[in-house]
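Discussion board: Methods & Data

I've been asked by a reviewer to show the raw model output for two of the constructs in my manuscript, not just the figures. I'm not sure how much to include, so I'm pasting the format here to get opinions. Each protein appears as its amino acid sequence followed by a line of discrete structure tokens. Is this the kind of thing reviewers expect to see in a supplement, or should I convert it first? Here is construct A:
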Amino acid sequence: MQTASHICKNCNQTFTGKYCNHCGEKVFSEKDKSVWHFFEEGLHFITHFEGTFFNTIKKIFTRPGQLSVDYCNGKRKTYFKPLSLFLLLVVLYLLFPVFEGLNMRLYYHTHHILYGKYAMQKAKALMIETGWTDQQIVAAFHQKSEKVSKFLLLILLPLTALFFWALTYRKRKYFFDQMVFSAEINCMYLLWGFLLLPILLFLAHKIAYLTTHSDFNVEDWLLGMITYLVLCIYTGIGAKRFYKLNRWQSIGFALLFYIAHIIIVQYIYKFILFFIVIHQIH
């Protein structure tokens, strides 16, 4: 029996079967116009999203590095795309900022150990140019940086990947692979440092208030140490699995990553953030 051929309504190519072998467009039928099919498509999206999303999150927390191993080896159907997951977490961080995180106020920049003098000069020049007061400049800077700081998190991916590439050059991995592992590590950075840890601190604060009627406060430096301690342990385990390192190599990798990520976040990222925001204020 001869299979009927179709002309694709998307690319005009002739094909047989249910899907165009050129662009993947599905053959349109009367069934596709039913109300049931309309809801069926929505249900498929929700269940597919939920399955891949939670499977990816579970893999990140239970087997560091395995997501990157599988994804780079072609096993992708069961996972949320690493870059898409990172973007989703950035959006969640943008919509539900549990605390300021990397959105530092102007005072931090003008007192930064590396570029503080430059930041102070730019802030004073802006005051002269606009005629605004200190408070107005601070408020305008914070308002602008609140959103810019979130979207600027994207630069963490190539910068971290570049560090991974330099550190594991002899492994001869594609830069694509380095980007995937970078996405996994930075997803963990966002999940732990800016979503889960703040929630745990919030719960601890509520419990302390209900039981002892006192506040539960943690110094910023201690929060940073907790964040990076967990992240470095995660990175060491993940690197051992992804790059096939031995124990001591993975420990060294984690320590070097700690230094590199501090430089990337505390110096490069924050300087770029300041530079962009200060030039957007009018």
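Construct B, same format:
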Amino acid sequence: GRDNMPVSHDGEDGQAIDQTDNGRSSLHLGRPPSVRDLFKVMSRIANSVVFERQTGYATENQRTICLAETMDVFAAACPDVKSRRIFVRDFAAPAWSLTVDAAVQSLESRIPAIDQHDGFVHIGRVGLPTSQDEVQIDSGTYACTAYTIRMMESIGVCIRENEPVLLVGETGGGKTSILQQLARISGHELVVQNLSLQTDSTDILGGFRPLEIHHVARGVYQDF
């Protein structure tokens, strides 16, 4: 009946929030979630967390990692901090049995550790293969803040899971610098392709160019 229908009102930031009859909020975080997102979260958790066999207990650190994977999949596309905090409060933190304060602290103040061993460079919860014998974190020209390290960690998980990544932001906001720093500390070459309104598909995929046969034959004739 009508009493069971969700009602809509504006959140603190003016973004639409659906309030259901149980008092919980259903945010619109940029796009509707799908079953594919759920499978993606499960795949990430399976590759990030090693649970003890034959037990249903998960440590707080393991649940914190699960929280981070959940937020990256479902809420990373939302640019509004207040909306993400509402999602943490009403959905993500209760789902992993974490307090809201602990969840927000982990997501917004945690500084992932960066180290290297066994042929991998580890950035927080993700390890990427590297050919470097020693990781040089401080390049002298790039400031590794808590935010940029967390961003490199999130991008690193996408690389490990072979997921495409789209970084959105103002010009000069540090999108390219984060990728350059991630490539540097992991010992990988970064291939850069600058795009513009004049960029054509052949600039990326390549193509065939028609040639007159006598132009090719002239070079062969001159060589021999």
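Answer (T.O., handling editor elsewhere):
This is acceptable in a supplement if you add a one-line summary per construct. For B, something like: The CA atoms of residues 42 and 69 lie 9 Å apart.
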